[in-house]
Structures are given as structure tokens and as C-alpha cells.
Amino acid sequence: MLHASIRWLRLAAGNLLLIVAVLVFARAFFPYKPFLPGLAQHADYHAAGEAPAPARFEKLVFMLIDALRSDFVFGDNSGFEFTQSLIRSGVAVPFTAYATSPTITMPKIKALTTGSIPGFLDLILNFAESDTTSTLATQDNWLAQIKQSGKNLIMFGDDTWLKLFPGVFTRTDGTVSFYVSDFTEVDNNVTRHVAPELKQSDWDAMILHYLGLDHIGHKTGPRSAHMIPKQTEMDGIIKQVYEAIETEEHLKDTLFVLVGDHGMNDGGGHGGSSAGETSAALVFMSPKLKTLNLGRTAPEQPTDEFRYYRLIEQSDVAPTLTTLLGLPIPKNNLGLFVDDFLPLWNADDQVKITSTNARELSRLISASYPEFDGLLAEGACNGKGGQLDNLACIWHSGTASSILSEKMNLFAMFSSECQSILTSAATNYDTDSMLIAISIGAVAIGLFSTVWLVEGVAGLAFYKLLFWALSLSYSGMMIASSYVEEEQQYWYWAASAWGVILFVRELQRGDSGVKSITILALLRTIRRWNQTGQKHAGADDIAKTFLPEHPMLLWVLVFFAYTDMFWRLRRSLMAKGSSVALGTFLSFPPVVCSMLFKLSMAALDTQELIPSFLLDFAESFAQLSVVTQAQLVFLFLLLNILYLVVMRNTGISTATPGVGRIQPFHDILTIFLATQSRLTNIPILWFFNIMLLLLENMRFDSQLPILLTSLAMQHVSFFALGNSNAISSVDLSNAYNGVPNFNIALIGPMTFLANWAGPTLWTSGTILLMASWLERTKQKQKTAASPTDKHVDTVVQDGRLDAYLRYAEIMSTFRAVAMVAVMGACMVLRMHLFVWTVFSPKYLFAMAWTGAHHLIIDLGLGAALHFTGA
Q1: Dist. CA 506–CA 518, nearest whole Å
Q2: According to the model, what pLDDT value does residue 561 have?
Q3: What's the pTM value of the predicted model, to 2 decimals?
């Protein structure tokens, strides 16, 4: 065998290179998009002495309701009854605003205020509340234009606005956007400012950003019982603001805009590109708009999935707002003025508006394609037929026409063509750096795999072949978008195939095969527990459809799951010779507190999951702070860990016969992960522990089968708990357990563990299975050795070290092969239609698997548990 120090060195160097490769590729693949600096002036778009089209409104109320999907406002089953009455009366003009992926708050605010299309890297910055690199302080937007004109802005709601627009607002009250467990206070903190501010006349633009509806979606989905009451509450705010505009003299020239930054999918998440996520409601309201005589009906039937009324781009909001307010269009705007509002001006001003929009977009075309200036200088159509040639020809025709309607139509056509060219232009990828990153990753694969390919355990060729078949077939999947979207199917089939192999192995050993059949049955059950992926994300499943209809069954399963946790932990914590009471005293509090915490959270968020006879008790117990309840769970678990450490350091065994030294830590981890999981997913953790017990009883005689089981089940468990390769599947509902305020150092790990609870449990379970295998190996070696053999303990200790190295090498090899495959797919398919909706999110998830799960959980936690058993 290679010397251990060389293997450690290769392992460390390979993982370091893998992280370098991941970061280099990310920098090349997710570049910041360049923008034109400075603020636009009217003189930029108008000839000397030409006045811009006059303003139609003096003040603005911009009400953004997070995750306001189009059907929430415009559909039949809506709580926005007053808003719909305004649409019917003609004083409100409705649209469906298309939100391009990623459908996350920060990039959508950028699109709404600048008219540009933010880069995908903004998705990462969206989760970094303390980040300041994403500020719009140096980028043109309608808030900066209002501020530049000497007017005052105020803001209440999501503090993302304060980060994006530092120093812009005269008065603010920001709220943290990621505290998704809060449905009420986060909105009450906004609403309490509305009535007093409507009486004030010292502001010119008021921004209200409500978060409660989005939080309800994350916690309980769009069909939650909380959804209609929240919509009715928001409709009441709209009524309050609109009636103030009608009655208050200082608000008579106010434009009221209701908008959603994005929608949500059937699971309540967002971030991806499904119709529900990209369809946001947009309504312009003012008594002045009645003169447009648009005659809209409400509620309305969609012409396509979630498409109500006219569909416009979200970027169209910025040029429309600035024009209505008489301000210059932001420099980096890709949007089009919404021509429904053109009748508010006379014919000459309508031409000015369309030509101004066209002139602004032509500047961006010139910045992106310098040759376009030369085509414009030619002064006439050249007849060549190229895309830019045709664009220049439209411009020449528009400027030469003397017919106002024709001139306006040509400028509008020019603007539309510019928008099409600019929005479809490929990102300027750094392909050289991408190739370098892939090469570095390939070197890491070589460092990982060389050791165990050359020095591998003899007689395990079949398992080695299975490992490479698993690794390479999975890597090959990354080239196809449909396979990436439905990756869970691959792992469900792989795990089932592995279960069949285990069944055959059992029969060959003379066993009945019952253990393998039970595992296969459990796999089939958890496969139906949470429908995930893209094709079946909203389909009926056990967690979202069956269990809410049978809450009694849910709590029976939850009770058995927590009872199993109690008995396991109690057995693990009982020291030799100690009383039964001690084990009960230590294990009972964290288990009971965790279950009561879940009951309280259900009483607050999902009462349909609570049987009627438990509801009164749950509601009364929920009066206690859920933050304090979660903190108690973590405190009791910490005390159990401290107890174990103290007992180990004093040399006292803390386990009953037959219970390994790692088992107590695994049992504590199970309770913690149950606390971090959704209520409906807690039974799955119980199923996983049953599967681990069955696998341990199979008594594997080599390490590779254990590691193959681990690879398959880590990924199966990730998808079984409801995750997918879509950003919208990221569960934030348990990120704040025990945390009263936003703190990225706490929220980041809590969010990760809530979403990777299954893989984390299987990492711990893998170490348990390895410990059992090592113990059997140790007993065999001691049985074979003579009573006077003094080297047995050293041999056993070397075997433990070799087992961890083998485990780390194989896990690292798979992760490196998978990461390089994802990088390769992203590079090859960088011009693919789905690069930003499928492959880019997959790369972000691959980064999380590599940087967080592999390094911290698989290698870090795995090492801590493995050598704890020494």
C-alpha cells in the first residue's frame, strides 16, 4: 500500500485543486454584465431646444408585493376584489409582467428599476444580505432620476432596497426578507407607516415592499388557507392608498403602481423559469387613466398559463414610469414604453416618446456593436439584409418619414428590434478560464483515483466497475437539459438497481432476502413522498396531497419517528452500570421539545396538518415563542454532546453493549435534522434509519459496497425530501429555527442543513456502517492472531486510517468526476436556450454539493465521527 502520508497529501491537494477549479469556472461563467455609467439627461435623447414630452404624474406610490403571481390578482379565486373593481371601472390598467429567470427578488428589483436584465450572479448576491457589491448607486435607474430632480423618496419594507439604493431615501423602515416564518409582523411593519405617510406632503415617491405573501408561499404553497386572507389584507392597503389619491389634494397627481417581482410555482418556491414563477401581476392605477377607455374585465380568464391581459416584459416598467413622470429613461434600459399609455399625450408628444425610447436603445446597440454607428452614418438603407443593416434601415426610414403615425410605428419597430437583439445577445464568456478550470478538475480526478485504482483492494472488481458505471453514467447525463431537470429519476433507478443487487447477494449468502425487499419497499414509498423536478413538481404526492387529507396518519408516523429517536438516544446515552433514569433524563427533553416545536410551527403555518383533537393544544402551545422552543431543542442536544465528551474524557463508556461509540452522535444528529426538516418529511428520516439498521444487519464484508450505498442514498435522500436542481426548490422555512434575527453566519448553515438533511444523515449512517464493518474486521483479526501478538491493535488502528482514506478517496473521486462533467456541460452548452434556467442552477447546486456537502459534511463531519469511534 502507498504510505498514508502520501495518500493524505494527494487527498488534500486534489480537493484544493477541485475548489480552485470550481471558483475559476464560476468567475468565467458568471461574469458581471457591463453597464453605461452615469445618469441620463433629457439632452441625451433630444435635439437642442427640443422639450421632452411633459409629465403626466408628479408623484408615485410603488407597491411591490413579493411573489404576486398574476392569477392572485386577476383570477377568479382572488382576494383582490377592490383592485378588480378598479380594473372594471377603467382607472386601473392591468398587465402580466414577464419576469426572466432567475426569478429572485434582487435581480427582479434591478429589472424593474433600471430596465436592464441582471446577470445570473445576482442570484447568489440575493442571499448575501450583507453584500454591498450589488448596489445600484452607480447605475442609472428611476429612483436616481427622481432623486436627481430634487425630489424625496421614502421606503418601507424589504431592506434589499436599502442595499441597492444607499443614501437615496429620506425615511425608511427596512425588514429582513428571509425570515419566511413570519406572515404578519413583516407586513405590519410596512402598513403602520402607510396612513401617516399618506397625510404627509414632503415626499414624491413612496415604495412599499410587502413580504408576507411570499413567505406564505414558501411555507405552505399557493393554495394555502393563509393565501386568500393575505390577498384580502393587501387589497385593503390598495384601497387605502387609492382612496387617499382620490381625496387628498397633495396626492391628486399621483400614479399608483402595484407590481409583483416574480410569481411562484405550485410548491410555493421561485427562482426558476416555470410559467407560475415568471408571471407577475402589474397594475397602473389613477383616476386620470379612465380617459384611456380601455374597458378591461375582472376577473379575467387567462389566454395561456398564468397570462392575463397583455403580456409585457418586466424591463418595460422603467421606461414607462420615467416617461409618465417626465424623467429621462435610464441609460441601461432594455425595456419598451408601454404604448397603452400613449393616448395621454398629443400626436407630437407621442412621436417624441417613441423616438426617445428608440434613441436610448440605439445607444446600447452602438455600445454593444460599434459597427452600428457606421451603418447609421451612411444615411440610407444599404440593402445588405444583415440584422444590424435592417435595424439601421428602420432608423433611417423613421427619421425620414413626415407622417407622424408612420414615424411613430417605425420608431416602435426599431425599439422592439433593439430589445430583441440586446436581450438575446450571448454573455461574453471567458472560455479560456473555463478550459483551465476543467483541466484543473481533471488533474484533481487523477490525484483522487490513481491511489485506489492502482492500490485497490483485490477481489472487488465488480464493485469497482459499478462505481465507475455510476460515476460516468451520471456525468453523461449532465449534457441533456431534461435529464438535469429530472435528475431524481436517475438516482431512484440507481438505488433500486443497487437494492436488487443486494437482494441477489443476500440469496447467495443463504439469507431470505427480506432485508433487501424491505429496503426496496421503503425506496418505492419515499419516491412518491415528494414529487420534484420539473415535469411532476405540482403532481399529487404523499406529502402535499395525501397527508393533509389524513393528518391523523401523519402524526402517527411523526410520533413513531420521534419515539424511535428517543429509544435510540436513550440506549446510546446509558453508561454501563448507570440507571435507566439517567438515559431517560438525557434523551427525553430534546425529543419532546423537537416534536412540540414542530406542532407549534404547524399551528402557526399549516393547521390542516393537525388533527382536530390536537388543534386547541397546538394553538395554546404555539403562544410560546417558537424561537425559544427551537433554542431549547438545540440546547438539550448540546448538553447531550457535552455529556458524551466529558464521559469519554474520563474514560467511562457511554454505551450499552452492542452500541458503538459513534451511535450517540448519529442519534443526536437525527433529532437535529428532524428539527430542521419539514413536518411532513420527518417520517422519511425514520425510514432512512430503518434502512441503515437493515444494511448493518447485512454484515458487509468489504468497504466498497458500503460506499456505493452511501453515494446512491445521499442523492436519493436529497430529492426524496423535495429538493431539485431548480432554485425554486430551496427550502427557507427552517432557516430561522432558533434564530431571532438575520445573521448570515447562522442562517447560511441552517439553510444548508435544512435542504441537505437527507445527505447529511446518510453521511453519518455511512460512518456507522463502516464502524460496524471495522469492528467485524477487528474481531476476525483478533481471532486469527495469537494471544501474545502485540501488533494486533496497531494493525487494527492502521485499518481504521486506511478505511477513512479509502472513503475520502472514493467520495472525492465521484464528486470531482461529477463537478468536471457539470463544468463541461455548462461550457459546451453555454449558447443553449436553457443555459440560465437549467444548467446555471445546476452548476450552483454542484458548487453546494462540492464546497459544502463534500468538504464539510462528507470529509469533515465524516472524519470527526469516524475517528470518534477509534
Answers
A1: 13
A2: 96
A3: 0.81
289: which DSSP letter?
Answer: G
Q: What architecture is domain 47-291+307-314+329-333?
A: 3-Layer(aba) Sandwich (3.40)
Q: What does the alpha-carbon distance between residue 667 and residue 574 come to, in Å, rounded to a whole number?
A: 13
Mean pLDDT (whole number) for 552-565: 95
CB distance 141 to 318 below 8 Å: yes
Q: Let me know: does 701 contact 590? Beta carbons within 8 Å.
A: no
Q: Which residue has the higher pLDDT, 60 or 572?
A: 60
Using a 10 angstrom Cβ sphere, with 0-12 exposed, 13-18 middle and 19 or more buried, the burial of residue 784 is exposed
Q: In terms of C-beta density within 10 A (0-12 exposed, 13-18 middle, 19 or more buried), how is residue 84 classed?
A: buried
How far does CA 536 lie from the centroid of its chain?
18
**Which residues lie across from 154 on neighbouring strands?**
171, 206
836 touches 101 (CB < 8 A):
yes
User: Distance (Å, rounded) from C-alpha 326 to C-alpha 353?
Assistant: 10
DSSP 194-239: HHHHHH--S-SEEEEEE-HHHHHHHHH-TT-TTHHHHHHHHHHHHH
Q: Report how far residue 95's alpha carbon sits from residue 283's, in angstroms, rounded to the nearest whole number.
A: 6
325-340 pLDDT, tens digit per residue, is 999 999 888 899 999 9
Residues 6+ apart with CB under 8 A from 807: 703, 707, 766, 770, 862, 866
What is d(CA 72, CA 675) in angstroms, rounded to the nearest whole number?
32
Buried b (16+ CB within 10 A) or exposed e, 302-336: beeebbbbbebbbbbbbbbbbbbbbbbbbbbbbbb
**What CA–CA distance (Å, rounded) separates 418 from 313?**
14
Residue 634: predicted pLDDT: 95
Residue tagged 419517528 (cell numbers): 561
58 Cβ contact list (under 8 Å, min separation 6): 204, 253, 254, 325
**Long-range CB pairs of 72-76, under 8 A, 24+ apart, other chains included:** 72/213, 72/222, 72/227, 72/231, 72/260, 72/281, 73/231, 73/258, 73/281, 73/283, 74/281, 74/298, 74/299, 74/300, 74/302, 74/308, 74/309, 75/299, 75/300, 75/302, 75/308, 76/299
